[in-house]
C-alpha cells in the first residue's frame, strides 16, 4: 500500500522534545515501512525520520507561531494542506497514485482533502484532540463516504457529536517505542518526580507544584512555555519589545501561577528535553504526573512513562482511566489533596508491572495492527461508494 502520512507543519518528525502527535507518526511510519508499505511523509524540512519521500512546504516546524493571535497563523495549516493536495495530484499524474491518505492535521486536513473530490484517494483522519475544540466542524463535516475518522481512545470518540461518531471506524490506542532497558532499580532513581508536557493551565502544572510541595517530593518540569523551548529562549523573547510572546496566554499564566512556585532546590523548570536526556528522565524519575484539567484524548506521554517502567499519577479524566491501572501501574487521584497522598505511596508500585503492561498494550506493533485494519476498512468502504 502507498500512503501519504500527513503529520502537519508544526514540529519535525520525530520531534526534538515535546510533540505527542509527531511521535505517533514517527512510530507508525516506521512500523508500516517494516511491513512493506510505501510511506511518503507530509512534514517540515528538518524532519529526520526515514521514509519513502517527503513533502515539506515549511523548512522548519511552525509550532512556536501557534501561540500568536489567530490572524497571524491561520494560513499556516492551509499552506501545508495545499502542498499535500499538489503532491496527491502530482503522484496521480505520474501514474503512481496514493492508495490512501492518513492525515493528522486538525480540521484543515480533512476539509481540504474532502474538497478534492471522488478522484482523490480515500482519507483516514486521526483525531488527536479534545473534540470540544472546533466542535462546530466535527458536528457538521460530512466526508461523503471518502473521508473517515480514527479516534485515539474510546472515551474521546464517545464525547464526539453524532455525525463524527457515524464516520469513525474505531479507536486505535497510541503506541510508543518500547525501551530495550529494564526499569531502573530504586538505587538508580532520582528523588524527584517529573511532568513531561507543555506547561499551561489545562495540564495542571500548578496542581503538581502544590501537591509535590505538600508531599515533600521534588518536581522537575520538562516542556515548553508558549512555544519557547527553555528559560533562555523565553527570557530573550520577553526582553524583546517587538516580540508578542509576553501576550501569549500560556506565558501570562506561567508567569503568574508557575514561576512564583519554582525553586531550584525543590521545583525546577528545565525546558524541553529529547533523545537520551528525555529517556533517562523518564526511566529514572520516581513517577510522571498528569494533573490534567481536560479530558485527555490519547495520552502519549502516559504510555511513554509506563513503557519506561515509571508509574503515573493522574487525574481520572478522559482516557487516563483506560491507561492507568489504579494501584498497579499508578494512582488516579480525584483532587489535589489526593494527589499529594498518592505521591507519598509511590514505593507501593512495582515498575516491572508498569513496563509489562505497556509492552502488552502500547507496543508499536499493536498500533500498526490497528491501523492496518482501519486502512482495509477505509479502502473497502470507498470502493463500495465508487461501485454504487
Provide structural commentary.
Helices cover 41% and strands 13% of the residues. With 388 residues, it is α/β, with parallel strands linked by helices. The protein has 2 domains: 2-175 and 363-387, 3-Layer(aba) Sandwich (Rossmann fold), CATH 3.40.50; 186-361, Rossmann fold (3-Layer(aba) Sandwich). It has a 7-stranded parallel sheet with strand order 3-2-1-4-5-6-7. A 3-stranded parallel sheet has the order 8-9-10, with helices on one face. Strands 11-12-13 form a 3-stranded parallel sheet. Helix 1 (20-34) crosses helix 15, helix 7 (205-215) crosses helix 13 and helix 11 packs across helix 14. The longest helix is centred in the N-terminal third of the chain and has 24 residues, at 70-93. The model has no long low-confidence stretch (mean pLDDT 94).
Strand segment tally: 13
At the third CATH level, what is the topology name of the largest domain? Rossmann fold
For the biggest sheet, the summary is: 7 strands, parallel
CATH class of the largest domain equals Alpha Beta
Which key features would you list for this structure?
2 domains, 388 residues, single chain, three-stranded parallel beta sheet, 13 strands, 41% helix, seven-stranded parallel beta sheet, alpha/beta, Rossmann fold
